[in-house]
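Task: encode each sequence below as structure tokens.

Item 1
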Amino acid sequence: MKKSRITIHLAIFIIFLVGCVHAMLSLAHSADEATEVKARYEKLLADYSQIVLHPTPKSPSATEYAVKNNMVSKELASLLRKDDEFAKKEGGMGYLDFDFLVNAQDLCKPLKIVGLVKNNATYAMQVSNRSKECCKECDETPYSFVLINESGVWKIDDAAYSFKDDSGADHKFSLKDVLNGKVD
């Protein structure tokens, strides 16, 4: 009787120990993944910032840069390309009238990632365009890119922006809403 009780306790302990090791490995994998995602986008956004800060006639648009560097999901790439085509037909301006990576029409400091949080199957990557560092009167509200895993690569699938109007009211909108003509 004692021997079977010891065997049961030992089996429970081993199962508990295996569960703890698995949980620790999962946490380590999540931390490694988040570190890799952040490092990838820090480099891409730093490189893009330099393009925007020092433009040349051959500088790529945000869409061109994001698509070339595999930064956007297939769906978002399609919406961005459609908006580019729409802009050509309309004489230069589509629904998107700002640089979606910068969340502005210009930039005075390199973009900075200020947070990265995993939420189930997505990451929310909070970014600042640091406009307050150059313009004391400017309203700087960090914005978030929604990243999804597409074929093993974390890609921007949408963005969440907000701004305050002259009355101080806060307005929130998404990149996909803009590209689909749902935002004025």
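Item 2
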Amino acid sequence: MSTRTRARAGNYNHLVDVLQESVTQDTFGQEHRTWPVWLQIYAAKEPEYRPTDIFVETSAAHHYEQKIWFRTRKDHPFNQETMRLRDEEGDYEILAIEDPSGSNEEVRMLCRKVQP
């Protein structure tokens, strides 16, 4: 009997679009980057807290950058160079992808909001 715990479907309560970068060239050879929706997934959304967050948030709020973890099942390959995530709050750049259990069942992606 396995002692691993599996994530329940209720833990993944955010509908997230996975955006795949598309680069095209116009007639003058200039590149145009777009981010069309490649896939929709359900994910858990968890803020990353650091010990200094309390001080950083109050002392330098205009420099503060919150990072978010998106956690989901690993049903599809994810690539941090060519993909972004989008939810109801905006687009997120993928900074890191990890498989915390090493069992290839769940993936966590550390992201930060893309500034418009």
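Check on item 2: Residues 1-5 have pLDDT under 50 and may be disordered. DSSP finds one helix and eight strands in the chain.
End of task.
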